Fold this sequence. Notes:
17 helices
Amino acid sequence: MELWQAQALADRLISELQARTPEIQKHVDYYRGRHPLRFASAEFRKYFEEQYRGFADNWTQPVADSPVERLTVTGVKPAGGGADAELWSVWQRNGLDADSQLGFTGAGTAARTFALVWGDPAAADVPRVTFEDARQAIVAYEPGSRRRRRAALKTWQDGSREYATLYLPDEVWKLQRPALGTLARKTLALREVDDLLYAWEPVDRGAGVPNPQPNPLGVVPMVELPNRPLLADDPISDVSGTVAMQDALNLLWSQLFTAADGAAFPARVMMGQEPPKTPILDKNGQKIGERPVPLEKFAAGRVMFFGNKDARIGSWPAANLTAYTDVIEVAVGHIAAQTRTPQHYLIGRMANLSGDALIAAETGLVKKVQEKQLWYGQALREVFQLIALVRGESDRADALAGGEVLWADAESRNTAQLADSLLKLRQIGFPFEWLAARYGLTPTEVADLMAMREREADADPISALVNPKPDPEFTQAGPGGEDE
């Protein structure tokens, strides 16, 4: 690809990324609790918007976090084999036990996240694997495909320079340009000049380092993890369906606070009496006028004198605050139903629920997590394929194409019930190694457990008598090539 083609492609991808960013930033802000006051009347906004600026009763965060706490990758298994310990070691040495949680949170909040795989000169057998923010990365696909990647871009800003790495199947471009804010477009006459100054240019990587550099993998090394993908539209954020109800809840709380403030100082009306006034005196002490007495003084001092015998005090009851809290509880219930978040995650109140009732209440969340495991797992399988390709292991990468990513159980189980069910499965013939994985152990823990069982069996004299090991000195190959 020529430089001008790389520049044009980078500009196109940047334009699409910039179009996505406002919606992503909105959802990230809601996840962090940065909510504007919406749905308020003009009068309420006029008097109270500044007072409640920064307040948020943030329900979007638990909605986005609840699936992530059950998304734990435990390994990868190629087709026709067991769990791959070497690739799992690469996963762990990149700190992806923790960073994958950041990636899953980013996907749930921003509707997508990305994983980038590339070689590490310091450790040839341990490729670098990083999760990338959806505001800084983008993948382009072949027409009519949701999987075959044609190009990818990662961009970031450092000081007054903007940088981008353009990944293609056969080469990788390192580009830079002045940051947009550093070029002020003052007149139309200078627009073309600014466009030339703002064009991408190759980064000087030093003598002997080509730019573009060849891509030895033969594929684009960035993979997209979509959240709730659609056939003909962008994936959907877990936060997006909560935003409107979240805004309504914030407004209800602000109105409740306002009503509570009024209840703290009950409203009263004075009838048959002129507003009290204070005389205005000149320097000689002579009265030259009157001014109204600030009523807040009487509200704070709780004392007022009236000279009119016909003056009466009337009042009206404060607003019913439980009406607000009842509506808020219903709104939170709607969020729980719409997002398949267990209501006890949000309400924080349980009324003697049995274990079976809790499992039933979490069924929606479990299915939601399993759907994410399906889509994220498909993308992570490609990530493990890229790891194998970086290591020069094309056969392993081919085997991973038909393999699967291993996940921790999405369902919370009672340990006693789980042990009882596993015991019954053992009695009908299920192998112990499979049962150990079903119990929730990772492939590494299962391997350690099997080694422990073998050592225990070796140390048990009765087991050695029942299951003696063959002695190699008495093992001979018979005429047919079989041991006798």
